[in-house]
Amino acid sequence: MLIKRPSHIPASEITPKSVFEDRRRFLREAVAAGVLVAGGSMLPRPAQAAPQKLGPLKKTPYSTDEKLTTYADVTNYNNFYEFGTDKGDPATHAHRLKPRPWTVRIEGEVKKTGVFDVDDLIRPHALEERIYRLRCVEAWSMVVPWVGIPLADVIKRLEPTSRAKFVRFETKLDPEQMPGQRGLFGAGLDWPYVEGLRMDEAMHPLAILAVGLYGEVLPNQNGAPIRLVVPWKYGFKSIKSIVKISFTQSQPDTTWNKSAPREYGFYSNVNPQVDHPRWSQARERRIGEDGLFSRKRPTLMFNGYAEQVASLYAGMDLKKNY
Ligand SMILES: Nc1nc2c(c(=O)[nH]1)N[C@H]1C(S)=C(S)[C@@H](COP(=O)(O)O)O[C@H]1N2
Ligand SMILES: [Mo]
User: Fold this and answer.
1) Cα(205)–Cα(294) distance, rounded to whole angstroms?
2) What is the domain extent for residue 115?
3) Percent over 90 (pLDDT), the chain
4) What pTM did the predictor assign?
């Protein structure tokens, strides 16, 4: 049956109220998200909040087959001090971050300097799934199915010069979007957050730039739209929401090293034999296994990736270079 609606009857009188209000809310949010373009066709587009699927994803031999940490834990138990220091703060506050449009500035000892759109830097058809253990310096760990591409692929395309010995990464600085940068949560860090890798570490096939997890676009609290993941190092090396990548001749200053040099070195390799000055690094709690009787797991050298990365540090004293 075809029901014609006379143009003078408002939609609110025909459509059930709940549907009408849903539609109004959709329109309001769509306008706020910039989804509706004046004069454009009104094709249904996913609302900003709906997770966007990524793929098809290439599988790689670098993934662990350990049990995944649940999506709920991966996205609600976070360290992202720009949004607060409690584990739940980033999930509560990171909706303030606008992950698009997003550009990454490339500078320093590299041929292709300039400002790149994140979607040009990371070509969607090259995405892989990498299931990695993430070991936080706070002695807990997770298993996360990241989506990303090898950092080496991006670096090669940028053509670093022979003088490039280190890579320096910087997080967005925007106190409007990141309340922690206004000093609200007492994180006591210098902003923006900075991390760095030696060039050979950055070129290692295990190091990735991630844009997603669980097959979907990265939630803001996990470092949208683009973050580093270096699985053999403590979690704090895996810097989130990157806006600048610089190629340098000398070792860059890094946020945690500046804040507490005795506790956090430049290398930050996971090492059960080198204790943090205030606690042991020999064991770890796997998030999701924190029952009363669950045993802590032994922490593995280089977070279990020794076979792949130990050669990077041959001849180095890892007690000095922590
Ligand atoms: N910009 C920025 N990056 C950051 C942090 C941060 O506070 N700010 N925390 C780090 C720490 S300590 C860890 S353990 C990981 C946590 O990543 P996840 O929340 O996606 O598990 O992000 C790292 N990257
Ligand atoms: Mo961490």
Assistant:
1) 34
2) 52-313
3) 80
4) 0.86
